[in-house]
Design a protein that fits this description.
Helix content is about 60%, strand content about 0%. It is mostly helical and about 70 residues long. The longest helix has 28 residues. The model has no long low-confidence stretch (mean pLDDT about 85).
């Protein structure tokens, strides 16, 4: 079952306000477990983790910035 536009907007908000900060904390703690690598390797890790978090949620964020396609134009 596909999510409605309003449901996708709500889930996107929850993901951005709750899930993303939690993911950032987990990513920082995960990287802190290892010895500090060179700055370029560390940058590559953070850029990679910054892209990876959004891949599972691509369907939720798709089209959120546009007008509601289900709204009626009266």
């Amino acid at each position: 079952m596909a999510l409605s536009y309003k449901a996708r907007r709500r889930w996107a908000l929850v993901i951005l306000l709750v899930g993303l900060p939690l993911y950032i904390v987990v990513a920082l703690n995960l990287v802190a477990l290892f010895d500090r690598p060179s700055i370029l390797v560390e940058l590559a890790i953070y850029v990679g983790l910054g892209v990876v978090w959004a891949i599972p949620f691509k369907f939720v964020f798709k089209g959120i910035g546009q007008a509601d396609p289900e709204a009626r134009d009266d």
